[in-house]
Amino acid sequence: MELPEKIQFSNQATALVKPLPHIQNESFHDLLVVKTGGKIVLVKLEEMIWAESARNSVRLHLRSETYSVRGSLEKLEEMLNGRFIRINRSTIVNLYEVQELQSWFHGSLRVVLRGGTMHALSPSYKKRFFETLGNPFG
C-alpha cells in the first residue's frame, strides 16, 4: 500500500532535518528580536540601558540608538533576563547601568544611570529592587 503524497513528503522532510550540533545546546537568552521600521534587528541585551512604555509601544534605549516597538512593558519584562528590573510603572533599567541612588522628595529615591539619565524608584517597586540587589543595608 502506497502512502499519500503529503505523508511521503513529510517523512522525507523529517529525515532531512537534523539538529545542528553546534547550535543544539546554544542559548540565545542574551538577544532580543526587535521588529522596527520594516526590518528585524537583533539587539544584544547588554546594549540595552533602559526601556520605557510609550502608549501602545515600548521605547528601547540602547547605547547607540533608540528603537520603538509595538508591545507592552509587561511583555518585555517577561522576556528579559535577571540583569533588568522594573523600577516604576513605566520604566525597566539594566542593573549594570545603575550608577547610584539619590534621595528625592519625601524619602523616595531616584535611580541614576551611567549616562546621567534619572528615573524615579516608585515605592511599590522599591522592596523588590533592594531584594534583587541583596539589600545590603537592611
Descriptive terms for the model:
alpha+beta; five-stranded antiparallel β-sheet; single chain; OB fold (Dihydrolipoamide Acetyltransferase, E2P); 138 residues; 10 strands; 4 helices
**How confident overall, as mean pLDDT?**
82
In CATH, what is the class? Answer: Mainly Beta
N-to-C series of helices and strands: HHEEEEEHEEEEEH
Helix content: 10-25%
CATH superfamily: LytTr DNA-binding domain
CATH architecture: Beta Barrel
Poorly predicted tracts of residues: 13-20
Spatial strand order of the main sheet:
5-4-3-7-6
**Helix/strand/pairing class, anyone?**
alpha+beta
Report strand %: 35-45%
Number of helical elements: 4
Radius of gyration: 21 Å
> Which topology does CATH recognise?
OB fold (Dihydrolipoamide Acetyltransferase, E2P)
Q: What overall form do the CA principal axes indicate?
A: globular
Straight-line distance between termini: 75 Å
Number of domains: 1
Let me know the largest β-sheet: 5 strands, antiparallel
Annotation, overall tally of beta strands:
10
List the helices and strands and how they pair.
Blueprint: H1 5-16, H2 21-24, E1 31-36, E2 39-44, E3 48-54, E4 57-62, E5 66-70, H3 73-79, E6 84-88, E7 91-94, E8 98-103, E9 109-113, E10 118-121, H4 123-133
Antiparallel strand pairs: 1-2, 3-4, 3-7, 4-5, 6-7, 8-9, 9-10
